[in-house]
Fold this protein.
Amino acid sequence: MGSVMVVTSGKGGVGKSTVSSCLGAALCKLSKRVLLVDMDEGLRSLDLMLNVSAHTVFDVSDIINGYCNADQAVLPVASCPGLYLLPAPSKVGAIDSKEAMQLLCSKLAKAFDYVIIDSPAGIDRGFEFAVCAADNALVVVTPDPVSVRDGSHVAKLLRNSGVKNIRLVINKVNTKLMLEGVFYNIDEIIDATSVQLIAAIPTDDAILCSNALGEPLADSYAADAFDRLAARLENKHIPLINLKKIT
């Protein structure tokens, strides 16, 4: 049985979809089968980021509502063997049963090592449906105060929802601005969110290029950080990326 993990934050713009897609690719390097489930109803993005939008016919709601089976809706990502995508519905409200979502994810977890659910922004209906099937969570924050506060709140909601294994990913880390006191530093973010850190991802233009072109993340500081995150999820004793080396 694979792990069902939700990637969430509460705040939009922190890079949840980027973390989901890059982490999925990094896990595939470790010979894992990974399914990304886009739960951003009406505003799906992973199909474009992974360059599979032209092949999208069905989505997660079509499986739940009985219009197709999982094999028809799940798309292989050609640029990354072992990585698959289940697109989000094009309409808001297409998924209306948490029990059906839980059942679907439990079935998918039998076929994949990781089912990574990309949660939409906010803490309303979309968040609840993304979280309901997860047994693990990555809370993604950026070092700015608003994102950190929202991450702290989301962590509490996850605990209240019964998600016990929660880890923190600090994305878009700018070491220079941290040292200048513009952004919170790593320790301050951990203290403010009360979540154990598992990864720090530096700001990197390679990520912007990857997302815009729908191509795999090139060798870079960010790629190294995602490889380390994947290894740490696999319980390997790998240190965080050395942010002091990044200017």
User: Anything to note?
Assistant: The chain is about 40% helix and 20% strand. Residues 145-160 form the longest helix (16 residues).
